[in-house]
Amino acid sequence: xxLINHSFEFYNIAFFCIILVRYFLVAGMTYGLFYSPLSPSxxxxxxxxxxxxxxxxxxxxxxxxxxxxxxxxAAALILSVYGAGGTELYTDPRQYGLWYLGGSYxxxxxxxxTYFYFTHRLxxxxxxxxxxxxxxxxxxxxxPWTSFAFDPLEAVVQALFLVGLVFVLPLHFITVIAVLTTxxxxxxxxxxxxxxxxxxxxxxxxxxxxxxPAHHSIHHLKYTVHYGLYFTFxxxxxxxxxxxxxxxxxxxxxxxxxxx
Length: 260
Prior knowledge:
Layout lengths: L7 H28 L18 H30 L5 E2 L7 H26 L5 H4 L19 H17 L2 E2 H18 L22 H10 L10 H5 L7 H7 L9
Helix pairs in contact: 1-2, 2-5, 3-5, 3-6
């Protein structure tokens, strides 16, 4: 592969551009689709959601640019070490069988969700929060622009997971791309806000186990619940799932007037 015959600096610049362009494309298109005045059908007007200010959005974009630089460094390191044969990455899908592509994808998501839950919960410790996570919570009512707005040290911690993963778990490059794509799309979805998708989702059997925008919006409002990334498993097991989760969604509804 010619891709592995470049310098660390080349990888760093290339990945920074790729990650940043991906962020602007995905977050920008999603924001335009769900927040545009031309698409009011996506909004549940029964739910309260404070409109984001451009100052808040610009703050999220600046943090996301820093995060892009951190993740670019991690990606450049991974590819450089791969070129020297120091990772578990592979290119031949027959090496472990086609079944392993799907299996390793699921394992990677479960491991990432576990890592994210415990680090995210740690970031909320009063002594660590100002240094690791306060910037992300500047957006009390998140938007797609908030999806990649990590504080610099938080971005380092999250990037370390991806670096460590390729040293311990054999992963095909397609699987890595699938995991990164899932992470990107899921992060954008989780930061849509509670009023952009049907509020009935938490009441669905799948919605009880899968984290969506309503679930994560409660985290931005309450701080002490809902630390997961993809699944509600750890929140339910360790007592950080809001016991009034479905009721909390209803609490986002404006009070009924006497004329209702």
